[in-house]
Amino acid sequence: MLEPGIMTVVAPIACGKVDALEGLLRDKIDQKWHGPEDCARHPKEICEHPTTCRCVDAHPSQVGPRDETQKAVCTCEGSARDQDFKFAQLPSLHCCAFVIARAETVTCFRTGEEKPLPALLIMEATFDGPIEDFVGDLLTTNFTSLCKIFSNCAGFPRNPFENPGLVADFLVRKHIPHDAYFSGVPGRSISEIKSEAELRDRLSAHLHSRYGNPEVEGGPTSQASCGASDDADDPDEDLRNRPAARFRDLQRELRNVVRRDPRLNLTEERPSFPASVTYGWLIWRSLFALVGVIFLAIGWGLLSLAGAGLPVIAQSVSGLLDNDVDKLFWAWAFLVVTWYWLRRLRTWLAPATWPRFERGAYYLKEEFARLVLAVWRWAILITGGAFAFHYLERADGTPPFGWSSEIAFWAVVTLLVMGAFYGLRILRAPVLRRLEIGPFVTREAALKRARDRECLDHLNMAGRAGWLVLYLPFIAVVETVLPLTGHGGLAAVGFCLLGWLAALAILAASAMALALAVKDAILIIAHGLQKREDNTYARAAELARRNISNSKAQAREEHHTHRNQNHFASVTLVKSGTRRLYLRVILWLVNFVARYFDNKGKLGGIPTIFSARWLLLDDGHRLVFLTNYVGAWDSYLGEFSDLNAYIGVNAIWTNTYLPLTACEQRLLETKHDGVGFPRSKLLLFCGAAYEQPFKAYVRKSQIETLAWYGAYTDLSVPNINDNTRIRRDLFRTLRTDELEDLFSRI
Amino acid sequence: MSPDRLTLSDDVEWDDVQAIVRRPFKLWHQSAHVILTIRDAKKAKAWLQALEPRIRTTWDIYSIEGGTALGPMAHAKLHFNIAFSFDGLRALGLHHEDLARFDDPFREGMAPSTKKGVSRRAGILGDLKCNHSSAWIWGGSDLTESGEPAPTDDRVLQPDIHILLMIFAHDRAEIDKYIAGISVETDGLEVPFQGHDAAREAGHRTKYNTHEHFGFKDGISQPLLPGTKKHRKLSPRWRDFHEVQAGEFVLGYKNERDEYPETPTVPCCRDPDGLLKPARDADGHVTDRRHDLGRNGTYLVARVLRQNVGTFDRTVQQVARLIATTPELDALDRADDGDPNDTSTRLLTRAAGLLMGRALSGEPLAKDVGPADADGNKNDFGFHHMDPAGLHCPIGSHVRRANPRDSLEPDPDTALRLSKQHRILRRSRIYGPREAPGDFQRFNGKGDRGLFFICLNADIAGQFEFIQDSWINNPAFGDLEGERDAILAPAIDTRISFPARPFTRWTERGTRQLVEVRAGGYFFLPGRNALKFIASQPEEHEKKTAEAGAVNVKDADALQPSDSGGCDA
Fold this sequence. Notes:
The complex is a heterodimer of chains A (746) and B (569). With 746 residues, chain A is of the alpha+beta class. In chain A, 56% of the residues lie in helices and 12% in strands. In chain A, the strands form five sheets. In chain A, strands 8, 9, 10, 11, 12, 13 and 16 form a seven-stranded antiparallel sheet that branches. A four-stranded antiparallel sheet of chain A has the order 1-7-4-17. The longest helix of chain A is centred in the C-terminal third of the chain and has 46 residues, at 489-534. Mean pLDDT of chain A is 71; it is low at 34-82, 215-240, 306-310, 317-323, 351-361, 436-459 and 483-496. Chain B is an alpha+beta fold. In chain B, 25% of the residues lie in helices and 15% in strands. In chain B, strands 8, 9, 10, 11 and 14 form a five-stranded antiparallel sheet that branches. Chain B has a four-stranded antiparallel sheet with strand order 2-3-1-4. Chain B is globular and about 70 Å long. At the A-B interface, strand 2, helix 5, helix 6, helix 7 and helix 9 of A face helix 7, helix 10, helix 11, helix 12 and helix 14 of B.
C-alpha cells in the first residue's frame, strides 16, 4: 500500500532573475525529445525513400536484410544532447516539471486596494516514497543543477556548497501541500509500472512466437497444413478442446513464462493498491447511510410533531400479525422491496446508457423495465397511502370501507397533489422566463441542449426523491387529522373526505409553494450574482472571436511528436471576497472525490489524466493547475468541455479571471481589466460547455512548461491500468469469460 | 437599414456556398487542381472579378445536373471553385485586423516553420520522417525535421502558395488551355504547380464513388447535412450515425454543439457596399456593426498523398501469411471476399480488408450492418454493440480510426455525439496512372500515383487536425498500445494488431510507409459574396498589410504580435 509522494516547491524568484531563470530551464534543464532512452527503444529508423527523406546520418552498411528495396538507416537525431539535470538518475521519480508564474497585481473590488503577487518558480514532482527520501536523492544526484536553478530564488542559502543541509531545508520549507490532487494510476510505483509493461510485452511476444508467427512457420507453405487441420476437426476433438480447458492451459503456460523469467522484476504476484482505492467505497456507503438516517430522523420528527409518530408506528408493529391489515402492509412492503431490487437489477443488466436506436440490442428490455418500474412506483404510493388510511381506521374502531375504495381514494389524492405540483410549475414558468432564468429553468428550453438535459434529469431525480420524502409525513398528518374529525356512518365519512381533501390541498399547496419558493429564491439570487459578475469581467467569447492566443505557452506541444504524455500548466487569478473561501471548499471536495471515489483511472469520466494538481497560492489569490495528460491538447480540453467533468471545471474555474493588458483591452474593445470564465449558470452549468470560449480562456491562462520529465512517456493511463489488471488476473483463478477478457488485453 | 437584413437564416444559403461543399462534381470526369501565386495584386483582383461569375455554387451545380440551368452557365465548358491560403488573402490586401480574425491553424498554415525543431503541426498531423514538410512539392516548410534550414534547391515555392483553383470539365484540353492562358503579365498570377486528377472510371460517370489506387471503393462514409434529399430515404439509425449539423462544414450556422462556429468578421466600415451579411455578436444577436466574411464559406484542407502500391501489396502479403497461420483471423462469418476456392486470393483480399476496415468492394466488416443506400453503399452500422473488441473490424484499421462512430469512451451515445463533432466532408480525387486492382503482386509499381485529398470543415483544429492527432496517429487509440493507423502511419516502427479469440495477433509493420504526404496546405473557401468582397479590396490596405506583416510572417511567434496590431502577449 503505497501512497504517492507529491511535492510542489513554490519559491518566489529574486528581483530581475525571471528571464535568466526561464532561459536556464528551457535550454539546460528540459529533457529534449529524442532523448537517449528513445534511441534505446527504436535504435534505427528505416526509410524506404531515401530520396525524399533526408536522413542525417545514413549508414549504408547497416542496411538490414529484411526488405529488398533500397533504404537508408537513420540514427536518432539529437540524442547526444546533454542536459544539466539528470532526471533519469532519480529512480523513484514519475514526473517532474518546472514552470514560472509571472508577477501579477490583484485589486480588491471593495476597497480598491492593490496587492502585488510575486513571480514564482514552481517545481512539481511525483515520486515513490516520502518527501525526505526524494529530496535526499535529488541532492545527491543533481545538487549543482538544483543550486543553479534555485539560487535565482529569494531566500536560497548563500553558500549551498558548504552546507547542503540548508538546501534540503529550503526545498522542504518551500513545499506547499496541494489543495487537490488526482492520480490516474494511484499507488503504482514506478518499478511496478515498468515491469508490468514489460510483463505485457513479454506475454505478447510469447504468444506471438508460439502461435501464429508467419515468419517462423514459413508463410505460404503452412497454408496447406492449416487447411488440412481444419478438415480433420471432428466433434470429439472439439469437445476435448473446450475453451475452458484450453484457456486454463494457456493461463498456466503464461504463468510459467512469467515465473521462468528472472528479468520480470515482480516481487509479488498481486498488485497492491492504497487504502483509499481499496476501501474508498466504504466511505461512500457510509455517507449514503448517513443521509438515509437523516431523512428517517426528519420523517420521525415530523410524525412526532403531528402527535402521531410513536403511536402510529407502535400500533403498526403490533398490528402486523393482525388480520387483513397486514396483508395490505405486506403488499406495500413487497412492492417497495421489489421496486428497489428491480432498479438495481436494471442497472446491472442494462448497458451503460439508454439505447437510443430502436434496433439497439437492449432497447425493448430497457423500455419494458422502465414501464414496470413506473407502474411499481405508483403502486407503492397508492398502496402505502391506503395502508395507512386503512390501519388508522381500524385502530379507531370504525369499519373499513374495503380496500378497493381506499385504493381509489388514495389514487385520487395522489393525482390531485401531483396535479397541484405540476400546475404550479407550469404557472411559474412565464415569470421565470421574464427574469431571464428561462433557458435553464423551463424544461422545454433546456431540452434544446443535450448537456443541460442531462443536468435537468439529475435535478428531476432529486426532485422526485424529495417528493417521496415529503409524501410520507404528509400521509401521517392527514391520517392524524382523520380521527379528530369524528365520524359516524357513511355521511360522516363523506364529510370527512371533503374535509381531508381541503386539508390536503392546503397542506400540499403550502408545502410545494414553500419548496418552490426556496428553490426559485436561490435561483434568482444566484442569477443576480451571476449578472453582476458578468458585468465585472470581459467575456471569454470575445477572446475566442479575437483569436488572442498564447503561442509561447504552446511550446510543449511543439515538441509533441506523438508520445502519449504531455504537460499542461495554467495560472488564473481568483475573484476576490467570498469566492476565495468558496474555491477552497470546492477544491477540498474535488480532492475528496478524486481520492476516494474517482480513483480508478478516471476523473469525472475523463480517462486521459495522468495526474492533476491544484494549488492556491498567495493567500488564495492565485490558482495554479498543473497536469500530466495523455494525447493532444485539443482532445484533452474537449473532454473537459464535453463530458460530465465540465460541472467540476465550472465549479472551480468560475471563481477565476485572467488579467488583461491595456493593449488586449483595446483589442477586445472592453473597459474591464480582466476576462472572466465563459458564462455559467449557477456556477455549475454551461460555462465550460461553450467549447470555443472555454478553449480560448484556457489557452490564455496557459503558461509555458519550461522543463518537463516523464519516466514512461509512451504509456497511457488505460495502458498502465490494463497492465496492472493483466498482472492481477494472471495469478487468479478465473471463469472462462474472465480468462477471455484477460487474453484480449494482452 | 431594413429590419430583415438583421434576420439571418438558419437554413444554409446554398446559392452562396461553393459547390464543392455539397456536390462532388460527379458529372465532370476531368479535373485539375492549380496552385497560383499572386505577383501583382491589382491584376489578380481584376482576374478574380472576371472569374467570379464562373465560380459555381451548390445551387448552380444542382441546376446544371438537373438540366434547368440557363444562360452561359448551361453551355460553360469549365467550372471553377476557388480557395485562398492565408498568404493569399494577405497578398490580395485584406486588412491586417481582419486577417487576425481567421482561425489559428489557418493563419499558421499546415507546415509553419519554427525555430524549435519539429513543429507542433508536424507532430499533430503525423508529418514526420518521410512525410516531413521539408520535402513537399508545394506548401512545405523551409526547415528540416531536425530544425535546420533546408538546402536551398529544395525550397520549391515554399512561401508562395496563394490560391487553390479547382477546375472541372468534360475535356482535358479545355483545362490545359485555360491554365496556359494564365500569365503574370495579364493576370498578375504565376502557376507554380498544377495537378491533373485521373479521369473518373468509365461507367462511373453518375456514381460518386471510385476506386483508389490500393483497390478500395473510396468516399463511402460521408456526413449527411440536414435537409439532403438523399437523407430522407435513409433509415433512422443511418441518420443517427451520419446526420451532422451544417455548422460543422459551413461557417455561419449551428454546429453539433448547437453553437455558431467562430467566423472571421470585418467592421461595417470596410464593407460599405454591404456585400456581406451582418455578423452575430458574442451573445448570438445579429448586429450590423460587423459583417460576416466567413458566412457560407469554410476551411479547406488539401493534401497530396502518394500511395506506394508496392509497399501496400507487400504488407498485404505479410498479413495474409499471418491469417494463413491463424484460422481465428480468417473471416469469422464472411466468405464474400473473392472466390472461396481460391485460397490465396481470398486470404489476400481478407488481409487488405483487415488493414482498411472495409472489404475492397466497400462492404463493411462490422456486424449488424443495415441496408445499402441508392449507390449500393452500406454505412448503417456502429461498432460498440456488435463489435466492441474489434474482432470483425480491427480497432487499428483505417476506417475505424478515421471514424470510430460509437466505439470510444465513455458510452456509445456519448461517443457518437462526440465523434460527430469531428466529422469532415471529403472531396478527394485520385491522380496518377491506374493499375489493375486486386492481384496484390504490384511490387514493382513505380510511378507517382495517389490521392489529392480535400476535406472541408469549419474548425480545422477541431476536425481535420483532431482526426489526425487523436484518432489516426494516436498510439493509445481505443486502448491500443503504441500503434498507428494501419494505412496512414508515418515511417515509425510499430505493430499492426488484429484482435482475435482468445488473444490479439499482430505483425510487425517495420518502417514501411504505405502513404506519403507530398504536399499540403490550409485554405479558406469563401462564399460567393465573400469572394466578391475579397476581389474588391481597396488598394490602400495592401500597403498597410504588407507593412504590418513585414516581420517574418511565417514565424509562429511573430505572427501574433504583427496581426494583432503590435500587442505583445
